[in-house]
């Protein structure tokens, strides 16, 4: 089974990264091809395509739902667009591959859950729309808020495939962090904001129980560089519990927002452990 997970993740990242022109906001056709691939992999799940217009162009969030008769939701999201002309293997084909594999787990095991699961592939997370109300996750979160949806937690998968065992391969936003976290980039991070420590620690615990990957969490002010650098930020805006699950992006990965963010730089064995851990969160949160 583990071998299948690794192969699945590799195939998903490969399929997204080979799309040309690159799947940025300008190349809507490429984003549409990425969306078509994502939909094709969400077998036996209820699919909703949430479309909206920006500058006369149509963009789409892809929502795959399981156990829809339940009211309370767990949302797992990842953005499928890239920054500029980059392949975006880690950022963020890795996260998309993660939600696709969780969808396969749900199809295979058909778990009996007390909550609904929504797996969401978001558009327009990257610049120039990052931090604006044009982000796909903002559109989604605002819609849920208007519908008075009950959300247990939103998990944002933001770069989950780059790891290093080299000393000093892990950097931090503030120097004193090195006293609390490893200097090797061989772990996965769970990032929450101040006031949401309980849910952040619970997610950390469940990833640890479901996988062999080392896991560390932090609750930090949103002004700390990187803490709100993904789709979870928009769920915070509407008062929902949300965390980012990440390999820490530019604090570790030198290929961040560069042409060198290619599939060959990812560690699919460790990435598969991350995904197994996240699936355990989905089951037990």
UniProtKB/TrEMBL annotation:
Question: What Gene3D superfamilies does this protein map onto?
Answer: Zn peptidases
The transmembrane residues are none
Q: Name one Pfam family in it.
A: Peptidase_M28
Which GO molecular function, any one, fits this protein according to its record? metalloexopeptidase activity
Cite a single GO BP annotation: proteolysis
Where does the record place the Peptidase M28 domain? 61-280
Question: What is this protein's record name?
Answer: Peptidase M28
User: What is the native source organism of this protein?
Assistant: Persephonella marina (strain DSM 14350 / EX-H1)
